[in-house]
User: Which sequence fits this backbone?
């Protein structure tokens, strides 16, 4: 592979891999990253083309369009019209390339860059253990968002921190750069209103908390998320927050954990200030 790259294209600075090569490389990733791969496979991010583009309920609600590939199939070289037919809200729908049915639409390289900028890791100064933390250089972060139009990854620090609003008021968004990555796909509608489209920017009691505070990387599992910040019994409510009527405990709850406030669980009560 190295010989072919150097021999055939010495001058190019932007080597592009096809989707087939991406998937082949991803199949090799799991040889070393088996735990991460299995967690990804158990998550919603492992959905195949048939799961996304042949979803009858979604296709009848929102017509398929070119922007679907921005998050679902960002390495696909064609258009949505090349992938599925008909482009309408009237099915039945079918893939023009049936072999793509089980291929993942969000492979590892959607969020991980193979070659990322950074500095080599330095060995700590064991003679001064108290300075190990302060002397440690920043890790080589391979996480970034792949933009199919630019055909390149954008590092987290280069992604914009979005300005979000709720009922006309500005919302405090998480400072963690990982949130900037998540919101590229879990995005609001054009006017940046929290909770619109697929946005899950936390507000209410969880305002400012990053996605990674509750969702585990790769698996997106949030089963143990409450334990990270809450003890068994809340200091303010004197209740076990894990049993409250929110979507954490009950998916049918009207109190979405991303938007829940004190009054959702305590209607009509005035909360005491500290």
Assistant:
């Amino acid at each position: 592979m190295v010989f072919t790259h150097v021999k055939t294209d010495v001058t190019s600075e932007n080597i592009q891999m096809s989707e087939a090569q991406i998937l082949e490389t991803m199949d090799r990733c799991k040889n070393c990253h088996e735990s991460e791969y299995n967690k990804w496979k158990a998550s919603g991010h492992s959905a195949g083309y048939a799961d996304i583009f042949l979803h009858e309920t979604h296709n009848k609600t929102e017509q398929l369009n070119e922007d679907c590939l921005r998050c679902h199939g960002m390495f696909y070289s064609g258009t949505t019209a090349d992938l599925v037919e008909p482009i309408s809200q009237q099915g039945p729908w079918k893939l023009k390339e049936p072999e793509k049915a089980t291929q993942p639409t969000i492979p590892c390289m959607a969020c991980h860059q193979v070659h990322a900028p950074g500095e080599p890791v330095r060995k700590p100064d064991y003679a001064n253990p108290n300075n190990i933390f302060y002397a440690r250089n920043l890790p080589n972060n391979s996480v970034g968002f792949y933009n199919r139009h630019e055909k390149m990854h954008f590092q987290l620090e280069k992604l914009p921190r979005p300005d979000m609003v709720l009922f006309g008021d500005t919302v405090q968004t998480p400072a963690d750069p990982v949130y900037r990555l998540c919101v590229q796909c879990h995005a609001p509608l054009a006017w940046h209103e929290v909770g619109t489209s697929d946005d899950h920017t936390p507000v209410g009691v969880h305002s400012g908390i990053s996605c990674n505070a509750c969702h585990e990387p790769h698996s997106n599992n949030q089963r143990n998320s409450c334990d990270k910040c809450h003890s068994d019994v809340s200091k303010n409510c004197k209740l076990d927050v894990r049993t409250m009527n929110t979507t954490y405990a009950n998916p049918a709850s009207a109190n979405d954990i991303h938007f829940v406030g004190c009054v959702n669980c305590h209607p009509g009560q005035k909360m005491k200030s500290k």
Notes: The beta strands are 84-85, 94-95, 144-147, 152-155, 164-166, 169-171. The chain has two domains: 2-110, 159-274.
